[in-house]
Every structure is written in structure tokens, then in C-alpha cells.
């Protein structure tokens, strides 16, 4: 895959200095990805080059502290970057979004010493994070052996797989209900990826199963665990720990919005260049773009997408308010953010699926050709939006609207 013609490569030698400049960098990446997104989707090859593109652009260390060599940006910028990248390629938008969540995982659950060590090394070595974390799979078991933790089992779904430098593992400590997270090198004999991701959309996300066989982790690397006076180990939760789900749900929201933006932009370009007016209309036009129904449809879809983006921005603002005092966040603040994120997610899904379908009505029969590839956008949103039932998100918002009930933290809320 060749991303750039000679002489046209962007100058990425300098790190962006502002949030807006980081988003512009993401749009440059998206433009390169969009050039052959359909062909790469059809080929379904492991996206090593695409992830390298993210690294070359500096996007991988966006959230890492500046003192360690990272971008030092906030989640609002990260969400906008996800949206921009996903407009060029939805799969790669998902990959960078999940990467940001797993790169942030240490801040959610780790000790201060662990956070510093992970973020410093991740920034300096330009780590790309994957995750084998699927709470509905309980067959990744951890046993203690010779003072170490040994992870063994399977995760039906993971993300990042072969393209990651490190993988976030999650399992249950044998004989307990305790979940343990640890960051481990991906390239080791104990981790294999069967390559069984063969789904309708999001084909380049390396989201298939992960086999974990005897991966050893020292207790010191168990996120958030500290040694007790009697030589045991204890995890002390806090409310901020539970923000991992709202954060990732808003990641979903933003790459759905990016995919929808890509669909609308590409469809509009096709309509301008190729869609013909209907010659048998009562009010015959010379060009497809002059057809009333075409203008009305694009106006409707663009308005819905702008509205969904505005709700996503509101949700991001609530995340920033929480991050400003992460150690003293209240259950109420966490719950209210989760409700708005639930609303943003369902709105993004609705807008994205409608855009992915209706663009065919305003591009014409020839646009259904496989070579055009307009099916890519609907397939991508349809596939990932099944991650957890959107009906439950609607109900969460409904309960809040009716009684003020806030969603209790779970693995999906």
C-alpha cells in the first residue's frame, strides 16, 4: 500500500503545538487513508502500514504527558482526532480510539508509580496499545504461581491484535471475583491471534480472538494492586475507576460520527461528479445537484450529523470536567456523564445508519457498484454498533428523563 506520491508527503517533522493543529494532522492522515480505503477493506490485510502511519504522524502519543515526549492533549482533542481519522477509514478510527482508551487505562486503575512508568515508556517507545478485554468472557483465568500471576485462557474478541506493541490483559483471579488488569508485551510466545475476525464491517481492526497461554506477570505490574502488611495484595477502587466504560462508549460515538462524515462527504462528491437528473420529472433539472429531493436529503442528513456531533462535544466537555478533579469525582458526576454519553451514542448510531443507507437514494443506481464502495460506511457502523444493544442506552436515558435515575457502573454502563 503506497500512501503518498513522491513529493506530496506531509511534513510531519514537527509536533503540532495546539489542539487545532493536532486535529489538522489527523485530517491529513485521514486524507491518505481515504485514497484506498475501499481496496484495503476488500483485501482485509493486517493494517501494519496504517498503524505506522498513525505513529509517523505522532497521533499515537497524543494523550501522553508532554514531559515524557507526548502530545499532552486532553480527551476532547483525542475524540476529535478519532472522528477525523475515522472519516478516512473507520477501521483505523476504531484502532486509534481503542488505543487511546488502553493507553489511558493506567490512569484509571493503576498506582501513581505504575502510571508514571507506563506513560513514560509508552511515550518514549511509541507504543501502540491493543486490548484483550471482554467482560462477557470469563474464561481468562489468573492463578498465582511462585509469587507471579499467570494468565491462561481465551478472549473471543480483542482489538489491535497483531499490530499492537503491548496488550492490556484482563482476567479473574482464581478462586475470587477479582478482576486484574496488566499491560504485557504483545510479541511473546504466550499470546497468539488466530486471525478469525471475518465480519461484515470494521474488517481491519484485528478484532478476533486472542489465545493467552501462560503469560506471566509480576504482582508489581497488576494495575492498582499494592502489597499489604501480611504479604498479600489489595486493590482499592475509586469512582474514577468506573469511568473506563463511559470513556470507551464516547470513543465509539466519535468513530461512528467520523464514519458518517466520510460517507456523507464521499457521497456528496459522487453526486456532484456523477449523479444525473431524472429526465422524466415534472420539474426537470439539468443536473443531479439541482434536484429538490437531492438537496432536501443532503440538508436533512447534514443537519442530523451536526446535531449528533454537538451532543458528542457536550459529552466530551463533561469528561473534561471530571478529569479536572479525577480524585474527587462524585457518583453523581460520573452518572450524569454516562447518561449524556448514552444519548450521544444512540444519536450517532441513528444518524450514521441513516446516512449510510440514504446516500444511495441521492447518488443513483450506478453508485451501488462495488468499485464505488459506498457500502463500506453502513457496514462499518452496523457491525460495531452491535457491540452492546443500543436499546439499553435508550432505556438508560429514558429512566433518567422519567425519574432522574443515574446508571449504576457496570461493564457496559
Outline the structure in words.
A hairpin with a 5-residue loop joins strand 4 and strand 5 (179-185). 45% of the residues are buried. This protein has helices at residues 19-34, 37-43, 48-56, 75-88, 90-109, 112-125, 244-274, 292-323, 331-358, 375-384, 390-403; strands at residues 129-132, 140-145, 148-155, 166-173, 179-185, 191-192, 210-218, 225-227, 233-235. It starts with 18 loop residues before the first helix and ends in a 10-residue tail after the last helix. Strands 1, 2, 3, 4, 5, 6 and 7 form a seven-stranded mixed beta sheet that branches. It is α+β, with helices and mostly antiparallel strands. Helices cover 47% and strands 12% of the residues.
Tell me the distance between the termini.
39 Å
Question: Could you give a short account of the major beta sheet?
Answer: 7 strands, mixed
The overall strand count is: 9
Q: How many structural domains in the coordinates?
A: 3
Class based on secondary structure composition and strand pairing? alpha+beta
What's the arrangement of secondary structure elements?
Layout: H1 19-34, H2 37-43, H3 48-56, H4 75-88, H5 90-109, H6 112-125, E1 129-132, E2 140-145, E3 148-155, E4 166-173, E5 179-185, E6 191-192, E7 210-218, E8 225-227, E9 233-235, H7 244-274, H8 292-323, H9 331-358, H10 375-384, H11 390-403
Parallel strand pairs: 1-4, 2-4
Antiparallel strand pairs: 2-3, 3-7, 4-5, 6-7, 8-9
GO molecular function: 3-methylbutanoyl-CoA dehydrogenase activity; flavin adenine dinucleotide binding
Keywords: Flavoprotein, Oxidoreductase
Protein name: Acyl-CoA dehydrogenase family protein
Amino acid at each position: 500500500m503506497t500512501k503518498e506520491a513522491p513529493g506530496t508527503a506531509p511534513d510531519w517533522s514537527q509536533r503540532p503545538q495546539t489542539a487545532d493543529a493536532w486535529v489538522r494532522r489527523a485530517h491529513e492522515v485521514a486524507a491518505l487513508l481515504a485514497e484506498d480505503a475501499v481496496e484495503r477493506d476488500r483485501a482485509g490485510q493486517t493494517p501494519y502500514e496504517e498503524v505506522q502511519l498513525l505513529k509517523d504522524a505522532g497521533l499515537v502519543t497524543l494523550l501522553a504527558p508532554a514531559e515524557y515526549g507526548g502530545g499532552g492533549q486532553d480527551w476532547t482533542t483525542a475524540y476529535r482526532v478519532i472522528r477525523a481519522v475515522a472519516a478516512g477509514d473507520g477501521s483505523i478510527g476504531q484502532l486509534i480510539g481503542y488505543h487511546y482508551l488502553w493507553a489511558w487505562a493506567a490512569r484509571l486503575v493503576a498506582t501513581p508509580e505504575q502510571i508514571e512508568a507506563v506513560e513514560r515508556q509508552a511515550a518514549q517507545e511509541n507504543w501502540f496499545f491493543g486490548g484483550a478485554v471482554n467482560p462477557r468472557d470469563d474464561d481468562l483465568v489468573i492463578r498465582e504461581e511462585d509469587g507471579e500471576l499467570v494468565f491462561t485462557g481465551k478472549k473471543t474478541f480483542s482489538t489491535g491484535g497483531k499490530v499492537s506493541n503491548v496488550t492490556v490483559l484482563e482476567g479473574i483471579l482464581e478462586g475470587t471475583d477479582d478482576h486484574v488488569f496488566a499491560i504485557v508485551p504483545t510479541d511473546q510466545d504466550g499470546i497468539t491471534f488466530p486471525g478469525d475476525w471475518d465480519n461484515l464491517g470494521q474488517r481491519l481492526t484485528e478484532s478476533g480472538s486472542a489465545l493467552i497461554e501462560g503469560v506471566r506477570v509480576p504482582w508489581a505490574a497488576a494495575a492498582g494492586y499494592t502489597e499489604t502488611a501480611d504479604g498479600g495484595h489489595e486493590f482499592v477502587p475509586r469512582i474514577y475507576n468506573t469511568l473506563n466504560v463511559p470513556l470507551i462508549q464516547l470513543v465509539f460515538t466519535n468513530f461512528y460520527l467520523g464514519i458518517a462524515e466520510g460517507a456523507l462527504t464521499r457521497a456528496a462528491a459522487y453526486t456532484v461528479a456523477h449523479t444525473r437528473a431524472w429526465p422524466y420529472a415534472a420539474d426537470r433539472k439539468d443536473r443531479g445537484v439541482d434536484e429538490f429531493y437531492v438537496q432536501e436529503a443532503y440538508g436533512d442528513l447534514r443537519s442530523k450529523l451536526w446535531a449528533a456531533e454537538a451532543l458528542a462535544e457536550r459529552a466530551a466537555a463533561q469528561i473534561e470536567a471530571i478529569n479536572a478533579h479525577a480524585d474527587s469525582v462524585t457518583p453523581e458526576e460520573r452518572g450524569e456523564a454516562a447518561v449524556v454519553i448514552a444519548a450521544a451514542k444512540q444519536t450517532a448510531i441513528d444518524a450514521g445508519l441513516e446516512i449510510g443507507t440514504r446516500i444511495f437514494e441521492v447518488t443513483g443506481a450506478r453508485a451501488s457498484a462495488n468499485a464505488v464502495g459506498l457500502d463500506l460506511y453502513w457496514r462499518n457502523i452496523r457491525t460495531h454498533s452491535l457491540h452492546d444493544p443500543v436499546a439499553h442506552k435508550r432505556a438508560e436515558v429514558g429512566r433518567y428523563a422519567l425519574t432522574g435515575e443515574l446508571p449504576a457502573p457496570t461493564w457496559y454502563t
